[in-house]
Amino acid sequence: MVVLRNCRLVKELTEGYEGLYADVLLTEQYISEIQPTGYAFVGEYEELDLQGKTLLPGLFELHAHLYGFIYNPYELQAMSVGKITFGAYAFAKAYLDAGYTTVRDCGSSHNCVAAIRDAIRQGIIGGPRLISSGLIITPTETGNDTFRDLYYEADGPEEIRKACRTELQKGNDFIKLMVSGAFMNEGADPGIQITELDEVKAAVDAAKRKGTYVAAHCHGTEAIKTAIKAGVRTIEHGTYLDDEVIDMLKDRKDCFLIPTGAIGLYCLDESNQDVPAELLEASKKCAAIEIANINKAYEAGLRLGFGSDIDLQAFLKVPGYEFIARKEYYTFRDIDILLQATKYSAEIAGASDTLGTIKAGKLADLVVVAGNPDEDIYVMTKPMIHIFTNGKQYK
Ligand SMILES: [Zn+2]
Predict the structure, then answer these.
(1) What is the value of pTM for the model shown?
(2) In order along the chain (395 residues), what is the average pLDDT of each group of 10 residues?
(3) Residues with CB in 5 Å of ion ligand 1
(4) How far is the CA of 241 from the centre of ligand 1 (A)?
(5) CA 126 to ligand 1 centroid distance, Å
(6) To which CATH superfamily is domain 2-57+357-393 assigned?
(7) What single string gives the DSSP state of each residue in 240-281?
(8) Per CATH, which fold does 59-348 belong to?
């Protein structure tokens, strides 16, 4: 058992305890008690004095591509399975080093994430909790060659069903489906819908049969509406959403928007040699629209998930990239950014029974930061002081 003494808690991220400061007891993999400071716990335990530093629930990343340990998709295509797998593992570790104790991978090649997930679960290697989609399922479409190794091409409900069943058979946790074009795919149009309603429905049904869900890649307005109507659980990106989309998503407990701010900022960085001129141009054109739309969805009170969609090099270059994006690219309030990175994302990932807040009985996935991130979100761009996963101190 470990007692974390003198923890500063954030009210919005804590359940079942009222005070600002507390001592928190960890027993095996759980948070077992939250008590006023100085409490005499029963039994033998180690102590760690946080001296008033803030204790947060472990962070969630809901839109990662772990295989992307470098940006260039063509270089990745040329790599061996082994190289990709070790690269993806390096990315998973980098996430945990930054306090992300749960990472949902929205598409990686060679089924590497399911393998890494299992190795972590078995204790063979250390790392965050991983949730894996395997390959991204997509209809035949212009630009697919950019991510040839990442896609499972399937057309019509029958082929889509087969593709979903295959990815789930390989041990993946959910389905990632392209419903609109993509910015990064050469020659593609992110504004158009590329998948028909009956195809999205086929994916939703195949996922439901296995007790899981579909995450839909959607930029274009019609694509977003089609995905929501078909019953997907998450709308990834949501760039061209409109008022009707906000109405469709309002107060829903089974369908959520996951904006990806960091990739938006990344693609606007003119100093970045990796971003092709065409992509830079397209990003400049849509940035103002995307920012306005996502801010509107936020102000309407939608519970937004926390996703970044960036490669490992970008992740390492800008610590706290998604926190910065949500503060400066979108204009969210600090406490809401924290809620998105923890409690809301846990709900969206279907993990709120065990994760997402600090509560007795939940799993001890925790991070300690130096400062008050609920008042100054830039605290989240600094190195984490401590990281716990499953009750074990990682850092
Ligand atoms: Zn993505």
Answers:
(1) 0.97
(2) 98 97 98 97 96 98 98 95 98 98 98 98 97 98 96 98 98 98 92 97 98 98 98 98 98 97 92 87 92 98 97 96 97 98 98 98 98 98 98 96
(3) 106, 309
(4) 17
(5) 24
(6) Urease, subunit C, domain 1 (2.30.40.10)
(7) T--HHHHHHHTT-SS-EEE-BHHHHHHTT-TT-TTS-HHHHH
(8) TIM Barrel (3.20.20)
